[in-house]
What we know:
By secondary structure, this protein is mainly α. It has helices at 5-15, 22-39, 60-66, 88-100, 105-112, 118-122, 134-148, and strands spanning 51-53, 56-58. The N and C termini lie far apart (28 Å).
Amino acid sequence: MPFMVEKLVHRMCEKTDWSLSQLSIQKGLYISHMVHLGQNSGSPLVSEQFEAWDYGPVLPSVYQMLKMFGRKPVKNIFWEANGLDGTSAADVIDVIAAQIKEMRPASLVHYTHDPKGAWAKHYCPGARGVTIPNEDILSEYDWRSKEAA
């Protein structure tokens, strides 16, 4: 069952001491979604489809929610963001947040722009609205897992 994106963003921000920019949050959500798909039999973390934008995979609703912050760290704008404790979503978000907390946004872009990845398969320069199918994101998880082993 997909989780509310606001709760996921809030948890990621909270776990990184509210230090992430929107770009880093987008990449963190994508990586979390990919890991969740891979570790939970293809079960999505979010119901919304990621899109292949110029700076990598993006959830359009998150972009709209956070664009006011520009490149600055996102602050707590969430009214109701609890309820993830003890879920597979919380587990994945916590691990990924710890990994990306100190990463530069450019490193996250580099990671999500891998030519073998799902984003690269669907990216069309300047286009928006081009979705990245969960099947391709799951395939990316599979090859990344094999490479890491």
